[in-house]
Prior knowledge:
Blueprint: H1 4-12, H2 20-32, H3 36-43, H4 53-66, H5 70-80, E1 88-91, E2 97-98, E3 113-116, H6 128-138
Antiparallel strand pairs: 1-2, 1-3
Helix pairs in contact: 1-2, 2-3, 2-4, 3-4, 4-5
Amino acid sequence: MKSSYFELAKFITSNSSDNSQSKILLTETLIEEQDWINARNQIKSLLEHKPLKEVCLLMAKIEEGDNGDPQKIDAWVSRSNTGKLSKIWICRISSLPQTEWTSISQAGYFNSLDWKYPNNISQLTGLEFEASKINYIDSLSI
C-alpha cells in the first residue's frame, strides 16, 4: 500500500507525468516507500548521457536501498560530481544567481530573472540549495 505522500505526488504530477521534475518527485516518493523497482523504472528515462546531479544522487539512493553494493553507490555519487547542474534563477543583467524568484533581483534589476542552467560552478557560490545536495551525499551510508 502506497502512502498518502505518494498518492499526493501522483495527483500533483498527473497532468505533467512526462516532465523531468515530476519524475524526480515520484522517484523520491518511491524511494521513501522503498519501492526500488518502481523508483528505478520511474527515473530510467532521465539517465541520459549526462544526467542531472540530482538524478545521479537519487540513483545512488536506489542502489543503496536495493542492493547495498558500495561500488554501484560510489559510481553514482562520483558521476554526480560531473552531472549537469540544476536550473537556478539568474539575473540576465548582473549574472548573479538566487534561489527564489522575485520581481526585483538581488542586484536590484526589475523583471530580470531567467530560469536556466548556470554557466559554471562559480555561479552557485553561496546558494542554499546546492549545500543541501551536498548534505544528501553525506546521508548515504557508504
